[in-house]
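Support case: 4'-deoxy-4'-aminopyridoxal-5'-phosphate complex. Customer-provided input:
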Amino acid sequence: MTGESHAFFEGKIVPFSEAKVSIASHAFLYGTSVFGGMRAYWNEERKKLFAFRPFDHFRRLLNSARMLHMQVNHDEESLTQILLDLLRTDNWQRDVYMRPTIYKADIGIGVRLHDLRDELSIFVLPFDKYVKNDTNAHVTFSSWRRIDDNVIPARAKVAGAYANSALIKTDANLSGFDEALVLDHNGHVSEGSAMNIFMLRDGVLVTPPITDNILEGITRRSIIELAQKELGLQVVERSIDRTEVFISQEMFMTGTAAQVVVVTKVDHRPIGRGEMGPVASKLRELFDDVVRGKNPKYAHWNTVV
Ligand code: PMP
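Agent response - structure generated as follows:
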């Protein structure tokens, strides 16, 4: 990529600087947009860019749109095609992050979801690490609660709901922590500010179920499959109590931006021996190979750009 990148905006690919919405647009005023967060990885040996599970990301985006009464004239295939066209326009040869958004585009006042025009936008950014200490993160239990399905659906990526994530992340960072664990209204551990969580207890990998107010993470789903098939681990989806975390052997967080972030301390208590454990370490290696198209067994997760 040289010069200005491009974006998909109001039905076509335009220079990034031309993709602008009004200060009076519904999505800007009320947070009424849904989005995806996707990555494409550059494989230097094969000189190829691989988008990771775009079909699954677009399915979740369309499901989020459905929850917000949005009318979208696209399916997973056509969205993937638009994404590939956009990535090819700028000939990216590095790791990138892609942000598709479907938003309530009408201008004016009136909070609701119906009778409003919906638009799609996508932009691409160069992207590397999201959490700096990704092999030795120190996290805290947030004093904020995770949004509940009956408040704003946690399984949808609704822009307005990310005020909750922002409160969680900023309070953790300003108190010196890398990330936070968030309890739901029942007091169970749900997830981080923008990542799902796993803990290893007695050799079993445990992660909260999709009914504990989590976002149904695509990285989470991928890691569950890799842990079962490649490491032969038992994976259990069940609610997690706060104090279970302190006595877990290993802990890590997963997300598109975060990838696999290893937690070695929670509120000043070491997890296991206080250093990255073998399960997290193996999963990080496996995941990195898979996303870069280096593991033929999982080639169906990679879309060649
Ligand atoms: N939870 C939340 C709240 C998130 O924003 C994200 C990032 N999309 C995740 C979990 C992880 O989801 P994924 O693996 O699909 O990126």
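The mean pLDDT is 97.

Case will auto-close in a few days if no follow-up is received.
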